[in-house]
Design goal:
CATH architecture: 3-Layer(aba) Sandwich
Subcellular location: Cytoplasm
InterPro entries: AceGlu_kinase-like_sf, Asp/Glu/Uridylate_kinase, Uridylate_kinase, Uridylate_kinase_bac
Keywords: Allosteric enzyme, ATP-binding, Cytoplasm, Kinase, Nucleotide-binding, Pyrimidine biosynthesis, Transferase
Bound molecules: uridine-5'-diphosphate
Low-confidence stretches: none
Family: Belongs to the UMP kinase family.
Order of helices and strands: EHEHHEEHEHEEHHEHE
Oligomer: single chain
Subunit structure: Homohexamer.
Strand content: 15-25%
Mean pLDDT: 96
Radius of gyration: 17 Å
Structural class: alpha/beta
Largest sheet: 9 strands, mixed
Helix content: 25-40%
Number of domains: 1
CATH class: Alpha Beta
Length: 240
């Protein structure tokens, strides 16, 4: 079945903003649907899929604390935002006939399963898409760190970072610099030293220390995720 790609188990990380469409805030159901369809086409290849979705389309801890809220409280609100996004993605995927589990780092048993590593592995073996919600469960972290942590725990072969409006890692911001150049490949150390915008530094360090490659690609191209898994299209590979 699996001739198109060599990957068996992957992590797909998308930011919360990937789900908001042109709205500027919150969830845009047709956009959620489109991403779910992308995930389904990869699922059909037999690839085992983990997902982490951010929460920035709803709430970010840093912006809450900038407005006087206690940082830890604001971060918990951000983590709860990721649960809403995870449930929206679950609903869209199951509407397409893809079985899923939402697995939360913060217990809320009526809403999502608690994170139990061996149970999550079993879901993957049964080809259920595992959507890891509530980040790492700890304030002061990001969902990039959560994606890297879970990818390591689940023994994913790579993290696929789906980005909006950009198709890889550039030497400077391509939105404001016409001469920005995309890297085909770049090392973790260069990402850190040059402060390239990929993931936050703690997530990059966690990927580097465990030799987990990151593939940064654009979410805007339809069919992009499946193409990227097959090594087609433009992307940046971050590795050792
Ligand atoms: N967050 C947290 N711990 C985690 C993951 C997330 O405290 O392990 C909070 C943090 O406040 C963050 C918010 O959840 O701002 C939303 O996550 P993130 O900013 O990573 O979302 P994205 O930018 O990917 O949409």
């Amino acid at each position: 079945e699996q001739t198109e790609t060599t990957y068996n188990r992957v992590m797909l990380k998308i930011s919360g903003e990937a789900l908001m469409g042109d709205q500027g805030f919150g969830l845009h159901p047709p956009t959620v649907q489109r991403i779910a369809e992308e995930v389904k086409t990869v699922h059909e290849l037999g690839v085992e899929i983990c997902m982490v979705i951010g929460g920035g389309n709803i709430f970010r801890g840093l912006s809450g604390s900038a407005q006087g809220m206690e940082r830890t409280t604001a971060d918990y609100m951000g983590m709860l935002a990721t649960v809403m996004n995870a449930l929206a993605m679950q609903s869209a995927l199951e509407g397409l006939g893809v079985f899923t589990r939402v697995i939360s780092a913060i217990r809320m048993d009526e809403v999502a399963e608690p994170y139990i590593r061996r149970r999550a592995v079993r879901h993957l073996e049964k080809k259920r898409v595992c959507i890891f919600a509530a980040g790492t469960g700890n304030p002061y972290f990001t969902t990039d760190t959560a994606a890297t942590l879970r990818a390591n725990e689940m023994a994913c072969e790579a993290i696929f970072m789906g980005k909006n409006g950009v198709d890889g890692v550039y030497d400077k911001d391509p939105a404001t610099n016409d001469d920005a150049v995309r890297y085909d490949a770049v090392s973790y150390d260069d990402v850190l030293a040059k402060r390239l915008k990929v993931m936050d530094a703690s997530a990059i360090a966690l990927a580097r220390d465990n030799n987990l490659p990151l593939i940064v690609f654009g979410l805007d191209e339809p069919g992009g995720f499946r193409g990227i898994l097959a090594g087609k299209g433009t992307y940046t590979k971050v590795s050792g």
